[in-house]
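Reopening closed ticket. The problem is back. First fold of the pair:
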Amino acid sequence: MNRREALFSLGAAATASATLVTAGKAQAEVIKGIPAATGISPDHLPSPVRRGGGFQVLTRDTDRQTLAAVFDRLIPSDANGPSATEAGCIDFLDAQLAGPFGSGAALYLEGPLNQENDEAMMGQPQFLATPRERYESGLAALEAYAQSTDGVAFAILSPNRIDEILTGLEAGEIELPDGVNGQAFFELMLQNAREGYLADPLYGGNKDMAGWKMMGFPGARYDFRPYIERRGEDLGLTPVSLIPND
């Protein structure tokens, strides 16, 4: 398990053909004065997520603490940027679980389900449970596993012990209680941590566009035409967002 490198790998293809920005602690900007005809109509504009507000799904302290312990080992704080929780990934995930993603609106959740055959055909485990239900059962199972094996809450385990458990989950070597698929739950958490770190700040994560700065992504710029022919150049563009999120 290679935590921060796994996050960087998501942007490799996007930045392979040209270097648009200098990665690092550049200041984020907000584009203003965009032509009115190109604006997003209010009914198509997502509502910004209020960070640190009341949680809608992750209402249990134990669940948030367990998830924070996992996320901050997947994307720890270092010289490249803040940790997952510092970047707002818990707020991002709670908002997602409270919406269509959490209810599995885009998923087929009807039976029959034959785990072995379906996994062979689809290349990954299939579930009848929604993502929201998978988090509820998965976080409870992680806490129960820590209490059973270590006698303490998952959130207060040492970083090395948490890494050991996450590595075992990733490899499919740890069996969580209550029939929870530990490997699939690990992959779900990793994917959502990545999404929260790199999504538009409007959705609650990527606070101060930290993920974009680290990846060298120039953000939601209105027009890239001045740079199309300048391949391979370091243009020194700082990340921008069309929609500020206070």
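Second fold of the pair, where the issue appears:
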Amino acid sequence: MTTWTEGITDRVAALIAIPSTADRPAELQRALDLVVAEAGPGLAVRTFLSNGKPSALLHPPRHPGPFRVILNAHLDVVPAPPSGFVPRLEGDRLHGRGAHDMKAAAIVLTDVFRELAAELPYPIALQLVTDEEVGGADGTAHQLAEGVRADFVIIGEQSNLRVVTESKGICQVRLTTTGRAAHAAYPWLGRNAVLMLTDAVARLLAAYPVPATEAWRTTVNVARLETPNRAYNQVPAEATAWLDIRYPPSDPDFAGRTAEEVAMHLSRVAGVETTVDSIGPPHHADPAGPFVRALRAAAGTTLLRKHGAADARHYHALGIDAVIFGPGGDGQHGPAEYVDIPTLRPYHDALVTFLRTFDG
């Protein structure tokens, strides 16, 4: 006889096996179709498509919204070699790309929705998106622009069964330097754009040093340095750096600022031309609010702050409380990613208890 754990492990493995990355639109659709099918019959399924990214909103036909609670799951993953999409079970750990971020949670959220949606005395929806890893503009944000609303949102990102009420904002930036080309044998005749760029990066890292340990402050990751120069014996005349900046709600240089204001600030610090390609606000939910207190009570857990951004920020921007609440595991976006299978049942049960008992 198949146990609950064995059954859900097999279904999560089937979803992991779909390489649902941003550059594979057919696989994004296949992952979405699989999870919609998992939700079962008798539901209203509203489909969306924005810039090639499909998403869906499922709800009981009699409750078209707005919703009391939305359960949100993203089905896209970051790229991996083919072996990353071959799920493997090692003891209590199921490995594979997306196991922890967040295909296991997606299956559990779908199960809970299927079990309870028809019986709850208030409207609930399941929101399935396929673009969270590339910013969420065409999934969660697009659905919100189309009028989807809720009083409270649970996003199944990994949290080891803790409730995340605060997460950092994200800012993706390019620094650009322009020097003067010259023969490499006579470097004094040119101006090396790469050296100008590394000096600018050093100034930024001096202002926002890389922490030695976990710290709730602004961090800068240098993701890429490049130049169009293709010759050893030429002083490069152009160079560009890609930066990923994560900032807490308390940082006045980023929080509440426009892209233009942030670009001006970073240009002053770095001393070079700065372009903000994207900026997403931090996320905060009231830890003393009735929804958060009820979820914490149902899970018997504590609060957590997360350094990574998630689709919760799109709800926060509209004044809607959203939290991250997901199972345990580790290694997301890496070769050893896994979900901790023994946390899936407590995760399921906490969600069921919250949805059945909340009356705030």
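Update: turned out to be a display glitch only; the data is intact. Residues 4-167+282-357 form a domain with the Aminopeptidase fold (CATH 3.40.630.10). The chain has two domains: 4-167+282-357, 169-280. Please close again.
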